[in-house]
C-alpha cells in the first residue's frame, strides 16, 4: 500500500509532539512535513522541538527541517493541525482550499454548520457533511475536526447511555496541565493548587456534545435534544482529564444496567490502527479510574470509567493529549482512509 503523506502543523507543541509520536511508525501514514512558527522554521526538528514526551523522539524525524505553516511549503496529502485556534482560523481554510485534507484539533471550526465534528466511536455518519462542505465552499480539500479533550472523554461514555433516553448531563472536570500547552500554566499558579476556571471550556463541553450526539439529516446536523451543564477545573496532574458525571435518563437504568452498557459498548469500526481494543474500560475498584494509573490504557486511546452509582453518577478519565487530541485526529483520518475519502 502507498503511504498517505502526512504533514503536522504546530509540530513542535504539546499536541504536535503527540502527533509525531502517533504517526512516526504508522502503517498507513508517513510524516513528510513538520511545520511550526518562524521561530522554528529552518531548524531541524530535534533543535526546534525541545522534545518533552517520555518516549524517545523517533529517529526518522530528528533531521527533518521544520518549515513555515504555509500550503506552499508543506508537502502532504493530509495535514494534522495542532495550531493555536486564532491561527488555525485563517490557516486551515488555506490548506483546504489548496486541496489538503485537514484533520484539526483546534476549536476554530468545530461548531461550523458544514464542518464535521467527529469521534469515530460516536458519530462516524457525520462524515457525510464533507460533501456538503465541499459543495458549499468549493474547496478541493476539506476540514474535519475532533472535539475538545474534555468533551471527547465525556461523550464516549454518553454514547452507550443514549438507549436509556439521555436527557440531562452535569459534569465537573479535573483537567491536566498539559491541556494548556507547553507555555500554558505557570508552575507557581498550579503547584499545591486548583484553578476553578478554564477559558471557554464549559461552553465547549455544553455545545460540542450536542452536535456530536445530534443527527445528520443529509444536509446538516440537528443537535441532540438534551441539556449539558459543565464546571471545569485545572488540577496539578500532568496528563489525563478526570470527570465526575451525572447523567439523567428517562428510563432510569440501574447502576448495574449502566455498567453493562459500558462493558458491551463496541463501536465496530473495523480495526483502525489507532483504535483501542476497548473504547471504554470499566474499573470496579472503589478508587479508580485515576489519571496516573489509567491514562495510558489502550495506548492512551481508551477512556476508563468507574464508581458507577445511583443517580446515575460515575467517573470518567482519559488521556487528554492522546485520546483528547492527537490520537483523536489520527483516528478520524484512519476512518476517512478506510472509507476511501483520503
Ligand atoms: N482536542 C483538544 O481538546 C486539544 C486541543 N488542543 C488544541 O491544539 C492546539 C495546539 O495546542 P498545544 O499543542 O497545547 O499548544 P503549544 O503552545 O504547545 O504549541 C503550539 C504550536 O503552534 C506553533 N505556533 C505558534 N504560533 C505560531 C505561528 N504564529 N505560526 C506558526 N506556528 C505557530 C508552535 O510553534 P513554535 O514551537 O515554533 O512556537 C507550536 O508548534 C490548540 O489549538 C489547542 O487548543 C490542545 C489540547 C487538547
Ligand atoms: N482547553 C483544554 C485544551 C484545549 O486546548 O482545548 P480546545 O482544543 O478546545 O481549545 C484544556 O485546557 O485542557
TrEMBL record:
The keyword Amino-acid biosynthesis applies. GO terms for biological process: lysine biosynthetic process via diaminopimelate; methionine biosynthetic process; threonine biosynthetic process. Keywords: Amino-acid biosynthesis, Methionine biosynthesis, NADP, Oxidoreductase, Threonine biosynthesis. It is an enzyme of class 1 (oxidoreductase). It comes from the Archaea. One of its GO terms (molecular function) is NAD binding. Residues 5-130 form the Semialdehyde dehydrogenase NAD-binding domain. It holds the Pfam family Semialdhyde_dh. Pathway: Amino-acid biosynthesis; L-methionine biosynthesis via de novo pathway; L-homoserine from L-aspartate: step 2/3; Amino-acid biosynthesis; L-threonine biosynthesis; L-threonine from L-aspartate: step 2/5. Its EC number is 1.2.1.11. The active site is at residues 149, 241. Belongs to the aspartate-semialdehyde dehydrogenase family. This is aspartate-semialdehyde dehydrogenase.
Amino acid at each position: 500500500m502507498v503511504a498517505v503523506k502526512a504533514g503536522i502543523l504546530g509540530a513542535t507543541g504539546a499536541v504536535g509532539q503527540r502527533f509525531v509520536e502517533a504517526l512516526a511508525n504508522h502503517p498507513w501514514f508517513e510524516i513528510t512535513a513538520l511545520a511550526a512558527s518562524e521561530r522554528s522554521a529552518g531548524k531541524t526538528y530535534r533543535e526546534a522541538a525541545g522534545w518533552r514526551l517520555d518516549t524517545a523522539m523517533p529517529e526518522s524525524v530528528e533531521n527533518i527541517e521544520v518549515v513555515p505553516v504555509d500550503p506552499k511549503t508543506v508537502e502532504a496529502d493530509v495535514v494534522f493541525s495542532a495550531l493555536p485556534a486564532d491561527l488555525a482560523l485563517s490557516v486551515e481554510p488555506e490548506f483546504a482550499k489548496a486541496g489538503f485534507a485537514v484533520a484539526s484539533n483546534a476549536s476554530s471550526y468545530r461548531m461550523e454548520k458544514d464542518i464535521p465534528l467527529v469521534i469515530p466511536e460516536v458519530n462516524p455518519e457525520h462524515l457525510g457533511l464533507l460533501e456538503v462542505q465541499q459543495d458549499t465552499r468549493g474547496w478541493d480539500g476539506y476540514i474535519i475536526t475532533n472535539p475538545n479533550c474534555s468533551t471527547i472523554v465525556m461523550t464516549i461514555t454518553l454514547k452507550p447511555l443514549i438507549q436509556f433516553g439521555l436527557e440531562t448531563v452535569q459534569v465537573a472536570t479535573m483537567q491536566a496541565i498539559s491541556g494548556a500547552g507547553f507555555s500554558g500554566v505557570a508552575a507557581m499558579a498550579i503547584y499545591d493548587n486548583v484553578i476553578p476556571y478554564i477559558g471557554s471550556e464549559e461552553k465547549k463541553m455544553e455545545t460540542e456534545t450536542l452536535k456530536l450526539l445530534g443527527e445528520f439529516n443529509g444536509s446538516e446536523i440537528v443537535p441532540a435534544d438534551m441539556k449539558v451543564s459543565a464546571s471545569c477545573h485545572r488540577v496539578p496532574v500532568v496528563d489525563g482529564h478526570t470527570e465526575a458525571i451525572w447523567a439523567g435518563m428517562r428510563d432510569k437504568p440501574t447502576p448495574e444496567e449502566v455498567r453493562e452498557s459500558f462493558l458491551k459498548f463496541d463501536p465496530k469500526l473495523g480495526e483502525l490502527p489507532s483504535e483501542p481494543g476497548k473504547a471504554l474500560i470499566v474499573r470496579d475498584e472503589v478508587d479508580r479510574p485515576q489519571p496516573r494509573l489509567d491514562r495510558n490504557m489502550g495506548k492512551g486511546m481508551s477512556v476508563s470509567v468507574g464508581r458507577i452509582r445511583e443517580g446515575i453518577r460515575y467517573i470518567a478519565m482519559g488521556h487528554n493529549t492522546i485520546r483528547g487530541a492527537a490520537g483523536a485526529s489520527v483516528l478520524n483520518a484512519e476512518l476517512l482512509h478506510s472509507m476511501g475519502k483520503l
